[in-house]
Amino acid sequence: MQNTGIAIIGSGSAVPTACLSNQAMMDLVDTSDEWIKTRTGISQRHIAAAGATLSALATDASRNAIAMAGISASDIDLILLTTSTPDDLFGSACQIQAALGADKAVAFDLTAACSGFLFGLVTAAQYIKTGVFQNVLLIGADVLSRWVDWQDRGTCVLFGDGAGAVVMQANSSDRLLGFKLKSDGSQNHYLNLSYAADSQELTPGVTVSKGAYQAITMNGKEVYRFAVQSVPEVIDKALFNAQISTEQVDWLLLHQANQRILDAVAQRLDIPKHKVISNLAQYGNTSAASIPLALDEAVRAGKIQNNDIIAASGFGAGLTWGAAIFRWGR
Ligand code: COA
């Protein structure tokens, strides 16, 4: 096994066409455009149509990333789908593999909620570093609209659907400069999409659980507190591991949960506003998709340029959080 570096050489994204504005939200719950905008920064979210699949959305994002990377689907060794909302609880990565015609690729799902993309990035990197795989397609995709309680104004205004993807490739120099991942299950109850068991007796003395997943529940205040405290800390640790100073960071790319969280984290790290990537006004919180979606938009808009140093951080249910420092491009 050789030790190889990593480059992130292509990005892509896809969102459903239907939009739900704050104005339209007012028909669903007792809220206002002003409340949502000032508390979250969100103006609208994209919502997957009934019958639309996560796999199709993720496949569209993947095609765009593969095209930018200049490789073909048959070059891909691994497809890693990070999601909490697969079409199939057994996993949806293989359906994407088939749709892309990525015959050579091993494909599997990884779940770490809104930290999924970040955790996936570090996981994929290990396969490349050890020389096992050369080309990895990493996808972050979620359709949380399936699991939102559309009568709960405390959560339904926050989330939207989307998919983003990147191609990671073995490279002579390592452009993934440092990372740090964290988990704390003792705070799990603050953010859940949990299974509620319904007991069914098969034969006397033998019961099974035939329940269903419940809507998202969240303690917004605690999640907010956790994010503004833990995210700057984990970015600091990743920067230390990368031997990079905050002044050297070109872009702060956070999970797009809430504009107030983005602002508070940037302020704590002393990173100026013009370096903070934000697109949540248009999309809301798209969970595992939010970082690659925002990355792809910024790359295609010409904001993020080759060699720019990006400090990325994901955080969410688990609780999980993490940061990765990387240079964009080859
Ligand atoms: N519209 C109008 N009013 C709303 C509302 C909505 N959509 N949602 C909640 N409210 C009300 C509450 O009922 C409460 O009313 P009350 O004072 O009469 O009881 C009031 O607004 C304040 O609610 P509170 O929950 O204290 O608001 P907040 O300032 O904490 O903001 C969040 C709520 C959800 C925006 C905020 O806590 C947050 O962003 N948390 C992090 C969530 C997150 O990012 N989760 C995903 C992480 S991956």
Characterize the overall form: globular
Strand order of the largest sheet: 1-7-6-4-5
Write down the domain tally. Answer: 1
Largest sheet: 5 strands, mixed
The residue fraction in helices comes out at 25-40%
Structural class: alpha+beta
The CATH topology annotation reads as Peroxisomal Thiolase, Chain A, domain 1
* Quaternary structure: single chain
The count of strands amounts to 17
Number of helices: 10
CATH uppermost class: Alpha Beta
Q: In terms of per-residue confidence, which ranges show pLDDT below 50 for 5 or more consecutive residues?
A: none
Distance between the termini: 23 Å
Describe the structure in your own words.
- The protein has 330 residues and is α+β, with helices and mostly antiparallel strands.
- The protein has a single domain (1-187, 215-330), classed as 3-Layer(aba) Sandwich (Peroxisomal Thiolase, Chain A, domain 1), CATH 3.40.47.10.
- Helix content is 31%, strand content 28%.
- It has ten helices and 17 strands.
- It has helices at 22-25, 33-40, 54-69, 93-100, 116-129, 153-156, 220-242, 259-269, 280-283, 290-300; strands at 5-14, 19-21, 44-46, 78-82, 106-110, 135-143, 161-171, 176-183, 191-192, 195-196, 199-203, 206-209, 212-213, 217-218, 251-254, 309-316, 320-327.
- The strands form six sheets. It has a five-stranded mixed sheet with strand order 1-7-6-4-5, sandwiched between helices. It has a four-stranded mixed sheet with strand order 8-17-16-15, with helices on both faces. Strands 2-3 form a two-stranded antiparallel ribbon.
- Helix 3 (54-69) packs across helix 4 (93-100) and helix 7 runs parallel beside helix 8.
- The radius of gyration is 19 Å and the shape is globular.
- The model has no long low-confidence stretch (mean pLDDT 97).
- Coenzyme A binds next to helix 2, helix 6 and helix 7.
